Amino acid sequence: MLKFCYSTGMTQITPTNITPLRCAAEFMEMKSSVSGTGNLMEQTEKSFEDMRYWSWSELLMVVKQCQSLLPASESSGVLERCLDSLVGRLSLTSEASPCPSTSSPDSSGVRFSCDSKSTESLKTVFSRASWWFEDLIFMSPVLVEMLAKTMVSRKFDHALLSRFLFYYHKSKLYTVSSSEKCKIVDTVVDMLYILDQSCVSCKSLFEIHRVSLNLKIAKSSRNKLEDMIGSQLDQATLDNLLVSSPHGANYLYDVNLVLRLFKAFLRGGLCQASAMRLSKVASLMDLYIAEVAPDPYLKPSKFLALIMALPESARDSYNEVYRAVDMYLEVHSGLSEEEKTKICCALKYEKLSAEICIHLSQNKKFPSKTVAQALISQQLKLKSLLHATSNTNNSCPGSPCRAIEVKNATKKDKESEEQVILYAGKLDLPTDNKNLREHLQGMQWRVMELEKRSNLCCTVMKENFSRGFIVGGEGVVPHC
């Protein structure tokens, strides 16, 4: 600036000095002409017009100067221009597969790949797309936030931006103080939150969460992190959920965290969660419940909350839940009958298999009332199954399985069906659990016999069709 003032407004402006010159001109309000020559503000403005001709290393050097001169560089508009130019170049190179060599500080510009092989591996493509990650590690959290927002406004690839944010977090975190770590985590989480969540890695989010457990990050950032994880909970694994309990708690795992994650998953609405995603999340919850059930310090209210965290429609079977409850009752033998009953009420008996129901009926750890309800529910389910099977076989008299007559087998099938229906219709609901078990086993045997005969019927029908026969009303008639 002094050279400019004492040399009648003549000084050389280059990328190495343009940032401090512009900030000095702003501070000194050098907007008026000096001795009839152009002022410093005008000269720096003209130099910025040549920014598109700067090399990549020169552009990075200017950005570093802007970072050291904050907030002056931001108020003067230099930083905004530099970041906009930087993002523009990255957008072009990400589309043109830049060479990894462009990350060299000695690079004279942005080079483009000459490799046109169609068999290039996906790993190589990813490495080329991320060539600039290492170059921008020097940025402070403030600059990273500005860069990310500029990229989002310029429609930059969200998947690539999320990978950079994870890379920045991993590379910077172990070389700074605790306060800087908090700033880095807060910034990375806040920027990831504004991206398309389908482009954000669930595994990497859990890595950030694991690091943040020992840091005092902002509550808003922690909530955003849990929301992002919860929205992709169907991609998580059991190991991800097994987080140690907070300091001072006597239970083994952080159950409250898992409950918050599952609530975050359901917060988007069941209509947006496909049946496959719900099934994956339910399986994950069943694994987690089985893992925490042996914890002797886990309260019944928390264990019950885990079982009921998901709606009934999420599970096709409650067998795994039963096994977890069985284990929990075994470890917590001192529970009152009321507490046991509350836990058992979370079981959906109609979604238990017959084998599990029989096991439950012989399980002394369960309350007697629960055992009776399970057996009655299973009995009603088998009755409905027998009734539905009977209606299916008798609904269409001209159907193949009803019309085929295989010598003496047809007569035996009809008699067997009538016996099964009669057996089911005469069943009462006895209060004695032993009688219930006997009726239950008898009905299961009848259902198995009926299924065998149905399979035989369909097999014979397929053989007749393969030989060119069709089914008539009273027997098998050759096909004309």
Topology of helices and strands:
Layout (H helix, E strand, L loop, with lengths): L1 H5 L11 H11 L11 H9 L7 H13 L3 H4 L2 H19 L25 H8 L11 H13 L4 H15 L5 H16 L8 H11 L6 H13 L6 H4 L13 H13 L7 H18 L7 H8 L11 H13 L5 H8 L9 H8 L6 H28 L4 H4 L4 H19 L6 H34 L2 E3 L4 E3 L2
Antiparallel strand pairs: 1-2
Helix pairs in contact: 2-3, 4-6, 6-8, 8-10, 9-10, 10-12, 11-12, 12-14, 15-17, 19-20, 20-22, 20-23, 22-23
Detailed description of the structure:
This protein has 480 residues and is mainly α. Among the domains are: 1-93, no CATH class; 132-231. 61% of the residues lie in helices and 1% in strands. The protein is built from 23 helices and 2 strands. α4 runs antiparallel to α6, α11 (202-212) runs antiparallel to α12 (219-231) and α20 (368-395) packs parallel to α23 (433-466). The chain is elongated.
List the defining traits of the structure above.
two-stranded antiparallel ribbon; elongated; ubl conjugation pathway; 1% strand; mainly alpha; NPH3_dom; single chain; NPH3/RPT2-like; NPH3 domain-containing protein; 480 residues
Radius of gyration: 36 Å
Distance between the termini: 106 Å
Averaged pLDDT: 78
Number of helices: 23
| Low-pLDDT ranges | 97-120, 396-432, 469-480
In brief:
The protein has 480 residues and is mainly α. It contains 23 helices and two strands.
